[in-house]
Amino acid sequence: MIDINLNTTILIVIWVVAGVIALAPLVIQTNWKRYLVVPLVFFAIYASFTTNKEFLGTPVYDVPDGEFVYVYHTVAKYNGNKMVTLWIRQTDRQRLFRFPYVKSMKESLRNARKSKLKGKSLKGKFEIKKKNKDLLDDTESHILKIYEFPYQEVYPKG
Question: Residue 104 and residue 113: Cα distance in Å, rounded?
């Protein structure tokens, strides 16, 4: 599956424009306009690097879909809100997710960190639960479930 998002789209557009500019000397007849190509290509490269640098390593502000392998997490305040940054491995990709901290996750996250420090691999998933039974209120609550791999042996570190 190809993961296309706004960042990727912006980079593709920048590189297509740079390619068109690089090919422009083939159709431009006057000499002085040909010299504009080099600075414009360098500008396109600079713009793509600054766009890409902004998004590298940035967590996704959502909860992961489906099952995942727990790697690590942190809890910190961002813009005055307590947030969980969860590092997971999912289908051979490693991702960071950031979502609001809920007190009901405290025990699950603490146990996950303890088990991981003991060398156990953990799987997890988020279950969606409606907060209210009111039909007009569609607010959802996410419940974090983290559990050990079945039939796993623990090997001592060191």
Answer: 16
Q: What is the DSSP letter of 85?
A: E
From first to last of its 158 residues, the chain has per-residue pLDDT tens of 455 555 667 777 877 887 777 777 777 777 766 677 778 778 877 777 777 766 677 788 888 888 899 999 999 998 899 999 999 998 878 888 999 998 888 888 999 999 888 888 889 988 877 655 555 545 557 788 888 876 656 566 65
Give me 116's structure tokens.
């991981």
For residue 7, give the 3-state DSSP assignment: helix
Report how far residue 37's alpha carbon sits from residue 20's, in angstroms, rounded to the nearest whole number. 10
User: In a 10 Å sphere around its CB, with 0-12 CB exposed, 13-18 middle and 19+ buried, how is residue 84 labelled?
Assistant: buried
Q: How far is CA 101 from CA 64, 80, 93, 115, 119, in A?
A: 15, 12, 24, 20, 25
Backbone angles phi and psi of 128, in degrees to 5: -95, 130
Measuring CA to CA, how many Å separate 37 from each of 23, 27, 31, 40, 46? 9, 12, 11, 5, 14
